Amino acid sequence: MRSELVPAGVGEMTYEIRNIVNVAERLQKHGVKINWENIGDPISKHEDIPLWMKEIVAGEVMQNDSWGYCHTRGVLETRQFICEMTNKRGGARITPDDIIFFNGLGDAIAKIYGALRAEARVLMPSPTYTTHSLGEAQHAHAAPICYRLKPEDNWYPDLDDLRNHVKYNPAIVGLMLINPDNPTGMVLPVEMLREIVSIAKEYDLFIIADEVYNNIVYNGEKTVPISDVIGDVPAIALKGISKEFPWPGSRCGWIEVYNGAKDERFAKYVNSILHAKMNEVCSTTLPQKTIPAIMTHPEYGTYLQERIERYEKVSNVAFEELQKVPGLMVNRTNGAFYMAVAFEDGLLNDRQSLPIANPELRELVEGLVNAPGVAPDKRFVYYMLAHTGICTVPLSSFNTNLQGFRVTLLEKDEVEFRKIFATLAEKIKEYLAS
Fold first, then answer.
1. Residue 98 pLDDT > 60, yes or no?
2. Which end of the chain is less packed: N or C, by CB atoms within 10 Å?
């Protein structure tokens, strides 16, 4: 082309959670059995959707109004239902006009960061979910600004680091958190959540709280939604049904705005998000209409609890296996369904490998991992994939300098799950010794 089409650096951004699928599919064609542990899709891991839930969806399909446009903010009856759920907890109060539905939280995230002026920065955790870090970086045309999550301390946020970033960088206008966290599985203690709110209040910032996993918590932990502790600080909470029902293919999520009218600049910002949604008319009607009936169904609580108990059980299996490996920083997963594992600094290098018997596959992997600028943990992940078929994601792809990997806890076959993590533990030792 006669000139550059995109801002500097944009073409270099990658979404490794999906990118590794391309390589795994090539290996699969050569007979490698793949264990897909890279993406948080319960359906791909054979989660059984109960008949009563399918019947609710089928019933809504039969209604003509589920085939049409809805209000730009979303289906009114569903927004009223969500308001009642939020308001009955006694924290921040909202109205249906404080809720906007999106075609998945990826859509919401793009519009939340896209509505900011480029000079306004949102401080986010490191490591963090790639969609957030890419969305913020693309709006600012600059690398994300991050506070540290501590692998040596349950992946809790380094609040001193967070405060110093805010104190010495006046471009920061907002703080982002994910609770429970993706990729680490950490659940924020309420005291830390209150401290983050306190920092936001002191420096006149708003908060973005991604709470899509808010009801998937275990090992004795409890989550506190940001609305319960926000006070009068402006905030946006992101919620959805993709992980909880689970219905990731619905592409249905929403934001709740707290204290939206208490700051004129924040109100203008939220209005710009709404206007960006207006350009699309609305989000998909059908999944929105099913939410009240599914969430109030007498079997919903039992169904969700059964899934949570399974995640708790396998989270402990994964922890027990991997904590035996010297050189790994392993924390027990207490929420969502991911585990992030970091290698101690300097443990990985560009000479380590695992044997790959097929010469064509070995050439493929070596071509990928020996390219300039490939992170050591990406090298590890690709060798592990080709050698064992276990598909994980490099931790460095989650906006962090830490080297490691993220793995899901979604495999339903307990025998297979134990085999996956026993194999990981054994092969990590072999890789480090190579």
1. yes
2. N
Residue 408 and residue 311 share a domain? yes
Asked whether residue 200 falls in the same domain as residue 77, the answer is: yes
Percent of the chain with pLDDT over 90: 87
User: Is the distance from CB of 108 to CB of 253 less than 8 angstroms?
Assistant: yes
Residue-number span of the structural domain to which 209 is assigned: 57-295
Tell me the two tokens of residue 198. Answer: 């306190």
pLDDT digits (tens, 9 = 90+) for 7-61: 555 544 555 666 788 888 888 888 888 998 988 999 999 999 999 999 999 999 9
CA atoms within 13 A of residue 370's CA, in its CB half-sphere = 9
Assess whether 326 and 395 both reside in one domain. Answer: yes
State whether 164 and 289 are in the same domain.
yes
Domain boundary among 243, 264, 295: 295
Total domains present in the chain: 2
